[in-house]
């Protein structure tokens, strides 16, 4: 139990460290959440405390609805979709909040797809 608590505390510290650096930059935040089956992304305005744009692989248009969407291909589709929705809302620059996740695999695929679609971070 001690090990689990220590690892959870380390994960929490990593998440807060990344998030606080982005908040101090004064940009909107592209926050992601990764579960075993799906990936979720949202652009958040921390000053007003509200979500401006969101997308997830649960949506039917992004390959969800009962299908496994926890892979790199789904993350790439999600990155493109969130970038298109952000550009439609007039958002061009964001800070990438990877949370406690490493910049690797699905997280990196989502970020690269969003950059390729025109979002700057």
Walkthrough of the structure:
With 121 residues, the protein is an alpha+beta fold. It has helices at 2-25, 72-88, 106-116, and strands at 28-34, 39-45, 50-56, 94-97. α2 (72-88) runs parallel beside α3. It starts with a helix and ends in a 5-residue tail after the last helix. The radius of gyration is 15 Å and the shape is globular.
Features:
single chain; 121 residues; alpha+beta; Nucleotidyltransferase, domain 5; four-stranded mixed β-sheet; 3 helices; 43% helix; globular
Mean pLDDT: 90
Q: Choose one word for the global shape.
A: globular
Structural class: alpha+beta
Helical coverage, percent range: 40-55%
Count of spatially separate domains: 1
Give the class-level CATH name: Alpha Beta
Poorly predicted spans: none
Proportion of residues in extended strands: 15-25%
Order of helices and strands: HEEEHEH
How is the biggest beta sheet arranged? 4 strands, mixed
Q: Tell me the span between the first and last alpha carbons.
A: 38 Å
Number of strands: 4
Number of helices: 3
Report Rg.
15 Å
Give the neighbour order of strands across the main sheet. 3-2-1-4
CATH architecture: 2-Layer Sandwich
CATH topology: Nucleotidyltransferase, domain 5
Instruction: Please state the oligomeric state of the protein chains shown.
Output: single chain
Q: What topology does this entry show?
A:
Layout: H1 2-25, E1 28-34, E2 39-45, E3 50-56, H2 72-88, E4 94-97, H3 106-116
Parallel strand pairs: 1-4
Antiparallel strand pairs: 1-2, 2-3
């Amino acid at each position: 139990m001690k090990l689990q608590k220590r690892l959870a505390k380390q994960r929490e510290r990593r998440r807060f460290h990344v998030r606080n650096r982005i908040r101090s930059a004064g940009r909107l935040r592209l926050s992601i959440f990764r579960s075993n089956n799906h990936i979720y992304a949202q652009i958040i305005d921390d000053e007003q405390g509200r979500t401006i744009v969101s997308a997830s692989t649960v949506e039917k248009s992004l390959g969800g609805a009962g299908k496994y969407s926890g892979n790199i291909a789904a993350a790439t589709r999600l990155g493109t979709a969130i970038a298109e929705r952000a550009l439609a809302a007039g958002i061009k620059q964001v800070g990438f909040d990877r949370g406690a996740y490493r910049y690797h695999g699905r997280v990196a695929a989502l970020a690269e797809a969003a950059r390729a679609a025109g979002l700057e971070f």
